Structure formats: C-alpha cells, structure tokens
Amino acid sequence: MKHMMKALGIFIFFVILPAAYSASQDVTIEINYGGIQQNRETKTTWKPGITALESLQSVAKVETRKIGDYLLVVSIDGVEGKRGEMAWYYDLNGKHATSVASKYVLQEGDHLKWIYTKDVCSPKAAGESCK
C-alpha cells in the first residue's frame, strides 16, 4: 500500500500537475473570415511578452501595413481588407480591443477573436480615423 501511494504521488507530480500547468498557458485564437472561408479556432502557447499580433502570426499567414506609428493587420490567410469597406478587427476576452495588436501584450489564457467585418475606422468609412 505504501508503494502504491508513493507511485500515485510520483504520477500526480510528474504527469497531472505539468499537464494542468501547461494547459493554462495557452492563448486561444479564433478567426472569423466574414463568410469568405470557414472560421477556425486554435490555441497557441503563451509566452511572456507575446503580443496579439505575434500570436496571430504564429497560427496564420498575416500581412500588415505600417500607418504612422501603427502596424495594422490588413490580411489574414489571404482574406484582405478593402479600405472603407471591410477590415480586420479583434476582440479580447469578449470585449472590443482598445489597442492595436502589435502593441497589446497578452496574458496567459487570453482569448482573441479576429473578425473580418465592415470597416468603420478608415477615413473613407468613418469620416475620420478611429481613436
């Protein structure tokens, strides 16, 4: 009985605890292609200092464009935004993001949802740029 308890303790320490610890260190990335192609959801490993943009780049083909001080996502997996019509935006943990993806540093367990939707930020769409 004593050996069985010791074996169980070793199993929990080396198998169960590491699995539970590493499971919480993921970031979930959901991509909604606006009906152009099938939506998908995947997980990637969270690392200290990783940004929303870097995590997206780890799971998808991403094109960006520098506008002023900002690096904006203009295409994901070949689905490209059209200024004044459609654009890529992201939600973070169910809320609209308040920072560009290249500047937002993720926390472990974050859930990003990238959405290809009506462009409401470009000057052509909104009459002024988003703030």
From TrEMBL:
It holds the Pfam family DUF4430. It comes from the Bacteria. InterPro entries: Transcobalamin-like_C. Residues 1-22 form the signal peptide. Keywords: Signal. Residues 50-118 form the Transcobalamin-like C-terminal domain. This is Transcobalamin-like C-terminal domain-containing protein. It comes from Candidatus Brocadia sapporoensis.
